[in-house]
Amino acid sequence: MSAIDYDIKQAAVEAGDAPRVGDLENMRPLPRISVHAFCESEQLQQVMDRCANDRRMSKVSLRITSGSTAAAANMFASTPTPNLIILETRANPQNLLAELTPLAAVCDPSTKVVIVGYYNDIGLYRELIRNGISEYMVHPVSMTDVMAAMAAIFVDPDAEPLGRSIAFIGAKGGVGASTIAHNCAFGISNLFSTETILADLDLPYGTANIDFDQDPAQGIAEAVYAPERLDEVFLDRLLTKCSQHLSLLAAPSMLDRAYDFDGQAFQPVLDVLQRSAPVSVLDVPHLWSEWTRSVLAAVDEVVICAAPDLANLRNAKNMLDALRKLRPNDKAPYLILNQVGMPKRPEIGPSEFCEPLETDPIAIIPFDINLFGNAANSGRMISETDSKSPIAETFSQISHIVTGRVALKKAKKGGLLGLLKRK
């Protein structure tokens, strides 16, 4: 960062208008706003295209136009202005305010304007802020810079932080993704004394209520089918307490209706979950539909669970490829290999399984029919059944990884887990 860059950012802090530039993982989703960007360079157009594909922009109506400030003024002379206009301009400091005058004459009073300019001039920055410009950024800018500027304008700085959402899904049915999700939710709540909500999204066949020996009268069905009533108070009525820090949003596990949902059906549930608890664990059924794609695109972390056979390898590869496209600005989903070493079953070795996936597993869980069977039949978690077992320790380590409490190093081939560095 140059000295001039520092001066501009310092002036923004002094003016109280500095965007909170941080990594995208910790950035809140932007609210339902309209944004129109006018780009003079291909570089900014590419940045705006990346913004349009980011999950934190899912509610934003973004339009990108190749054009100048004059083009913006001409367009909005006959159409209403959006909530935010992003303008790229090469005008020098002496002419920039004059260039903006025609646009100012047609802008609605509530419209915010962000300028991307080419002159690193502290005097220009202060003059623009005094004249009502929301932010001035110096070219080149990154996607994080643009989104942070929008968040600084439209996200309430005093809003409660959003909880972390973690989705578990199996590469194939029967690979134990639900069991892993339930044990990780239990581990997160116990290990960190963190309020955690486990949401079972498999409405017809969910097993979370069985695994925790619960029989709630209400659960996730009431939340999905009554989005107009859904808020933190209503959600609290639907939750079942499983332990001191773990609550369950159970599936009805009944076949009295067809469970067909549109693409955004679970988004209100996810929004309320993130406002209600520091961590939400989502047990996502092995489906590939509009609503599962929507959930997987919106959460903070995705964990794919797979068994070491060819069908799982194919499905895991397809899911990883699809999710990398759905979530282009997020890190790749985590991978867990489960049921490894099942007697008399030919299987693909972990290194051969992971090579075409271009990712290493964060855990390799061995097949142990007695431990898992006893836990399931008694309605208890692995750490409750045998707290000293290596598998219980593995679930503890997974809980640390998916909540971001460790830095994961490259796993050793054939090892249970890579070296873990606790934060």
Automatic annotation (TrEMBL):
<dbReference type="InterPro" id="IPR050625">
    <property type="entry name" value="ParA/MinD_ATPase"/>
</dbReference>
<keyword id="KW-0547">Nucleotide-binding</keyword>
<keyword id="KW-0067">ATP-binding</keyword>
<dbReference type="InterPro" id="IPR011006">
    <property type="entry name" value="CheY-like_superfamily"/>
</dbReference>
<protein>
    <submittedName>
        <fullName>CpaE family protein</fullName>
    </submittedName>
</protein>
<dbReference type="InterPro" id="IPR027417">
    <property type="entry name" value="P-loop_NTPase"/>
</dbReference>
